[in-house]
Amino acid sequence: MGDDSSITSGDKHFLSSFLGNDRKEPSPSKGEVPSNGHHGPSLSVYYNELLLRIKASLSAMQAFAYLSKENFKDQELGEQFCKIVNEDIEKTMSLINCFDDYLSFSTPMLKSNTVNALVEEVIKKHEREFEEREIKVIKKQFDKDLPEAILPDEQLRYLLNSIVECLVLSISFRGSIGFLTRVLDPETLSGEEKGQLQKERKYLEILAVSASDADVTPAKENRVSSEVSAPPRQEEEIQLILKLVKEIVTKNRGVIRHKVYDDKPMTFISLILPVERRKVIRYPSSEERLHQTKGIEL
Fold first, then answer.
1. How many of the other CB atoms lie within 10 Å of CB of 220?
2. Digit-coded pLDDT (tens) for 94-152
3. For the stretch 232-260, what's the b/e string if a residue is b when 16 or more beta carbons lie within 10 angstroms of its beta carbon?
4. Which of 51, 174, 214, 275 has its CA 20 to 30 A from that of 41?
5. CATH T-level fold of 4-30+113-278
6. What tens digit of pLDDT does each residue of 177-196 get?
7. Coil, strand, or helix at residue 137?
8. Cβ contacts of 230 within 8 Å, gap of 6 or more
């Protein structure tokens, strides 16, 4: 799935500096609060905070009505009072929820930073396995202005999970993993890969590298692998995963590069994907809007 001719000078620099630098780059930003075109957050953020406070007040009133009914000398009157208050509060809450749903679809956000965010998500998902196998994650470089890929998020998530699994299989025990995201100029490629890309399109690259610890001998590696109950690490398994990854990448008019350096030992996997030409709009979830209201003062 690629040979030495497909490795750019930038790739070689990244690979050569990988083992000698364990400095972690700052994580990609998680997105800014939606703006209305002026400085500061949009009105929808303040509306959301206001709704939260109203809901909290209504819930407190509902609880107070329930507790107060026991203080009525006329128990029937107390039950009726509690019932009326609850019905009014539930009607008001229903209206608030309708308005809350309306806000979800009236505040579109520009989709951005998806690739970097998914890389971080996949790293987090595999944290436990990394710890068990003593694999150190070095987030080498994330392009903060990386455009969107044309792939749906579900497919991109699958591809990232797959290449991480391949890297872990290639290490077995104790090593390092690094990630790089960047905009790629197809002219920097050569050979078969360059011919597969369209000149008029723009591309982004997700590059991942794994390196085994040179101090771990095969005997020690096998002993520790059995201690953490790791499955057998078969080359056939890696090739099967890469075959499935290549099928998805090719269908989306992209390219995958794979190279193993036995003398290091080091494994190099690169996904080159077309960039989305259009501006992609998405709508924030309730959880996102709740997160955006934190720190907002009315």
1. 13
2. 988 888 777 777 777 788 889 999 999 999 999 999 998 899 987 778 998 899 999 99
3. ebeeeebeebbeebbebbeebebbbbbbe
4. 275
5. Heat Shock Protein 90 (3.30.565)
6. 999 999 988 877 777 776 77
7. strand
8. 132, 133, 172, 173
